[in-house]
Amino acid sequence: MNKINIAIDGPAAAGKSTIAKRVASALDMVYVDTGAMYRAITLAYLEADRPDLNELLSGIHIRLLAENGQRVILNEKDVTDRLRENDVTENVSFVASDPAVRRFLVNLQQQLTEDKGVVMDGRDIGTTVIPDAELKVYMIASVDERAMRRQLDNEARGIESSVEQLKADIAHRDHLDMTRDISPLTKAEDAIEIDTTGQTIEEVTEEILKLAAEKLA
Ligand SMILES: Nc1ncnc2c1ncn2[C@@H]1O[C@H](COP(=O)(O)OP(=O)(O)O)[C@@H](O)[C@H]1O
Ligand SMILES: Nc1ccn([C@@H]2O[C@H](COP(=O)(O)OP(=O)(O)O)[C@@H](O)[C@H]2O)c(=O)n1
Predict the structure, then answer these.
(1) From the CA of 17, how far away is ligand 1's center (Å)?
(2) Residue 153 CA, ligand 1 centroid: distance in Å
(3) Which ligand is nearest to the Cα of residue 84, counting in written order?
(4) Which of 2, 32, 54, 172 is spaced 20 to 30 A from 145 at the CA atom?
(5) Predicted confidence band at 68 (pLDDT cuts at 50, 70, 90)?
(6) Whether the CB of 141 sits within 6 Å of ligand 2
(7) Is the CB of 149 under 6 A from ligand 1?
(8) How far is the CA of 18 from the centre of ligand 2 (A)?
(9) How does residue 209 score in pLDDT terms, banded at 50, 70 and 90?
(10) What is the dihedral sign for C-alpha 161, 10, 76, 56?
(11) Is the CB of 196 under 6 A from ligand 1?
(12) What residue ranges do the domains of the chain occupy?
């Protein structure tokens, strides 16, 4: 098989985007971070002072650029860095639980995967967006390690946080994502679970590249 799709799902800060980006680059595939798309709609929602989500969607145009991983263009403005700030993170699970928002983005995401050659990460990629993906990974890590990693991310980005607060926020967001009505975060039956706790980025990347090589053979 010369072209495959790879779906990577899992809870917050498990390492999905970091690994997906590296795998895509090593295999010359397209990397798509779907969390950033839900964050973009959340930013538009906050900037418009929490309007009706259905109405908001009719005025939203999202474009992804494959530059430095992925840049997100929301209505012709590059909002990539803004999407990681606390107000967006605090509201994204609410916005992502809305049926119209999910329909809108799943449709966009499925268009991106039609020609294969995509590494896509999120919460419902293996279960809903690409149920026929050739390789599905469900990535996890302990909540302590995830909070510590996110704290380092935030420090590098100049975003204020504390490890204790992050631990509580991450656990709360996971709970919302796992218990929502429409395509909740769950491991697809045919997904391979990888626990990245205590592993290096290189080790996890290698493991997935090996699994991909088997599918590409
Ligand atoms: N083994 C590992 N796998 C993936 N990421 C790791 C690993 N060890 C440390 N990290 C760090 O953890 C963070 C994971 O964040 P990210 O990739 O955004 O996760 P997610 O996309 O699951 O929210 C990054 O800062 C990354 O450098
Ligand atoms: N496929 C996806 C991706 C993200 N999301 C939502 O978007 C939020 C942000 O995703 P993200 O991947 O950017 O989050 P982090 O793990 O990077 O903090 C998640 O907490 C989910 O609520 C989703 O519902 N479905």
Answers:
(1) 7
(2) 9
(3) 2
(4) 32
(5) confident
(6) no
(7) yes
(8) 14
(9) very high
(10) negative
(11) yes
(12) 6-201
Going from the Cα of 141 to the center of ligand 1, the distance in angstroms, rounded, reads 10
Cα–Cα distance between 74 and 37 in angstroms, integer?
9
Q: How far is 177 from 154, CA to CA, in rounded Å?
A: 21
- Longest alpha-carbon distance in the chain: 51
The dotted CATH code for 6-201 is 3.40.50.300
Q: Which of 19, 31, 32, 92 to mutate to test the pocket of ligand 2 (most atoms within 8 A of CB)?
A: 92
